[in-house]
Amino acid sequence: MSYMGSLSGKTALVFGVASETSIAWAISQELAKNGAKIWLGYQFRYHSRIKDIAPQLPNLAGYERCDVSKEEELEAFFKKLQSPIDILVHAIAFAPATAFEGPVLQTSEADFSQALTVSSHSLPKMVKYAAPLMSKGGSVITLTYLGGQRVCANYKVMGVAKAALEAYVRELAHELGPQKIRVNAISAGPIKTLAASGIPNFDLILDYHKSVAPLRDNVTQEDVARCAAFLASDESRMITGQTIFVDGGYSIVGVPALS
Ligand SMILES: NC(=O)c1ccc[n+]([C@@H]2O[C@H](COP(=O)([O-])OP(=O)(O)OC[C@H]3O[C@@H](n4cnc5c(N)ncnc54)[C@H](O)[C@@H]3O)[C@@H](O)[C@H]2O)c1
Question: Partner of 183 for a Cys bridge, out of 7, 150, 158, 172, CB 3.0 to 4.6 A?
Fold first, then answer.
């Protein structure tokens, strides 16, 4: 099914492009291909890469630094924007390397705080700025992982952060529904990106996923992007508060095929 053109006239803010491998980059391209105008918000440490790749987007409206842990950057970003928006993509996560080293029992309060502040609480923080600009309603999309619902090896405190993020999706969908603002999460199967490189043994996780998922394949950034375009469009107008799996069916399996 194609959603070509179904986003024309809409403006999207996309947060989370760090490189061409970012899920947010594939989403930006897919939204632009379907006619949306795109604003990118990025972490300044990726400035030189963003400066090179952003102009490749056909409908680029602009790109501005925005570190979600710095209130002044969020404020400056939205002040600069000053125009109505329809779509907000939140594809941001971070936990310090030390959070992946020891057992979860040893997670320090500082690592817990940083993981949840950046990966979970940044969603309502951003929506607070974005919602007043969505006067005709809108679609908010975030990215999560199965580790928010089940134990996934090596994911540790990020699982806690994703559980909080998914709970925020439901709470925000409930609060903002009367304003016709929808809030959903895509739970993506594992994909090799910069963020994923922080997870120990990620290649083994990819191989295992491929062997167990009913569709016997790994997910690509583009698979996630097509789901995001659907959630951004009016085709999904009655879908809100959901976590939708784009994982080749991996999450439905209890005992995998034994031969
Ligand atoms: N790659 C996977 O296997 C996978 C699977 C499921 C969900 N996800 C989720 O997808 C989202 C995007 O990750 P990705 O895999 O594309 O990796 P990525 O490294 O390309 O993207 C992560 C982004 O988070 C941004 N970020 C981190 N801290 C930030 C801060 N303080 N302020 C602003 N931005 C900040 C980084 O700049 C980067 O752009 C994340 O939420 C991740 O948890 C990834």
Answer: 172
